[in-house]
Fold DUF1611 domain-containing protein.
Amino acid sequence: MHPSPITALPGPYLLFLGDTTEPGYAKTAFGLRDWAPDRCIGEHVLAGGSVSTGLPAMTPAQAHAQGARAMVIGVANAGGFIPSHWVAALVEGLEAGLDIVSGMHARLRDIPGLRDTADRLGRQLLDVRQPPEAIPVASGRRRSGKRLLTVGTDCALGKKYTALALAGAFRDRGIDADFRATGQTGILIAGGGIPMDAVVSDFAAGAAELLSPAAAPGHWDIVEGQGSLFHPAYAGVSLALLHGSQPDVLVVCHQAGRKAMLGYPGYAVPTIEETICMAIRLGQRTNPAIRCAGVSLNTAHLDADVAARLLEDEARRLDCPVADPMRRGEAFERLVAECLAPA
């Protein structure tokens, strides 16, 4: 049984960035810009905000005039709440003729100013972070088909981008492959999935099983990872995905140079080697044959020559393929080939 797709979302989008100053919290906006550019008209940033996607700055009225039909909250702060000082801007979007789409934990209709305005104007308030009903408890049973899971040393460093790039590369090779979204941005891109961090913990591994059901022997589900097994707040969702998806292959994702957990400066980022060992040890509980195919290294902040040298050095040091999927090239081809290599 495949998870039901979410209701078709109105578009194109105006990306709302609020007054965000931490780029890592704007991964929804960046993900939509990079993977659904045809649906993104512009961005709307409030005073005090310093994060930009590089899209044209627009008011809601200007975006509506350019064809936008929804304003998407493009940030996901810690806790997934909607600050009270954002409400006026969201109301402005409704009054300009835009529906509001949110991937936050907070429900749009629970905010009186939004609910009342939407009802008065006949506009939609759409919450993406809503899991399906009647998720089963995980069975732990092995099932047919192949699965790949991206796991991270931390949050917001490339697990979704890596999964999307690998799914596309598999399909380019004529392999039947699906990207399985587990967070609000991936769901907005793919049009379906399960928001894992909105699932009650006892059912999270069952949700991962539901997301990647039994399939034909040659079919691959490329499952978007969440959090980190070492994260002080989000390790639970990472472990549930690992146990429930029962991956045959892991790709470990890391941002070059990151030393501390995003938003948790007192916690060091684990090494790539620690992450590989921990993921395999825990993953063997539901798939004894699990293996790590290689490493996805986020080098977006480095120039091309420095990044190329780092990828080569890390591949030698770790003795496995190391690639930046956004740079493609031979390193990425080696990573794809190792993912698909016979066990």
